[in-house]
Amino acid sequence: MVGGRCYRSFAHSIVLLLWVCLHYVESSSGKRVIHKNVGDTVELSSGLPTEGVTAATWKYGGITVADKDIPDNVGVSKRSPFKDRSELNQENFTLTVRKLTLQDSGDFIFISAINEKQRDSVTITLQVHEPITKPVIKINSTWEACNESCKILLECSTTGDVSYKWTVGKQTLTGPRQQYIIREQDGETNVTCTVSNNVSEKSAFQTVKCRKDHSHTNKTEYRSSSVVMFIAGLFTGLLITLLLLFLLYCIKSKGLCHKRLTQSETINQEENQQHVYSALSHGDRCVYETVRGSEDAGPAGSQIQCIKSD
After folding, report:
1. Residue 156 Cα to chain centre, angstroms
2. Which of 11, 14, 30, 98 has the most CB atoms within 10 Å of its CB?
């Protein structure tokens, strides 16, 4: 019993010693990482003593962005990419940057000196992340007759660089896509997708049930597809109706034109005949002559001559 206690105490001491060593190495190296969202404000502090500091400079990407000896712009350099949204505290030399963007991610290096003697530099890595939006879950279920179960395909999507964690029933899975097997006797199964980064996290929830008669699909996706199909069918039916009406109009128009042309020709013929009959009624007479020519005169010919009477 005593030996066991001694062993546990020794192991605890070793773990504590390792933690202290690691913490010392991280602090002595002067490297830190800060995570922020787009639009946030960050305060970069070296964590070093400020008494007797004769030089203090912040650098970003090899460019001096702030210095305690710069009189104007609150210690901010005119070359700084943050000149309009940053300031340097002249007492503790903390650099404040507002309205962060994704492009602000990078290493900020603090260089300082006490009584003209330079101290170790401090590097702070800033990582700016896009705000996480609520994830969208898509579920597709297929009935497997061989083992009387449903194969569930899960897909979770969102914006930005995030980590995915699924909770399906009592099981935890990782990754944006997963495959899961449920049975009819399992009843309703709760599905939760959680997306997260170093700053925040958000979740979405759905319920899925295995049924033999039909497969489960995402309701929103199904409704959207139905609406699209309805609109497409309505448009197609309207187009076909317009085409049929146009063809019917063309056929009717062609028939009217043909009828009008026939009537016009008939009227013209009747007018010509009436003109001839009218001429005869006013005293004109036609004489049919057979002129027989001599053999020298050529072949016989016949002609109708109308002679107007006095």
Report:
1. 15
2. 30
Q: How far is CA 21 from CA 15, 26, 48, 67, 124, in A?
A: 10, 9, 20, 33, 20
DSSP annotation of 186: G
Question: In sequence order, which residues have a C-beta less than 8 Å from that of residue 25 and are 6 or more positions away?
Answer: none
User: Measuring CA to CA, which residue among 88, 89, 96 is closest to residue 34?
Assistant: 96
pTM: 0.52
Residue with tokens 């009436």, as numbered in its chain: 274
Phi, psi (5° rounding) for residue 288?
Answer: -100, 120
Q: Which of 108, 94, 100 is nearest to 64 (CA)?
A: 108
Q: What is the pLDDT of residues 102-153, one digit of tens each?
A: 999 999 999 999 988 999 999 999 999 988 899 999 999 898 888 888 999 9
Q: In this structure, how many other beta carbons lie within 10 angstroms of the beta carbon of residue 81? A: 17
Per the structure block, which two tokens stand in for 153? 């395909």
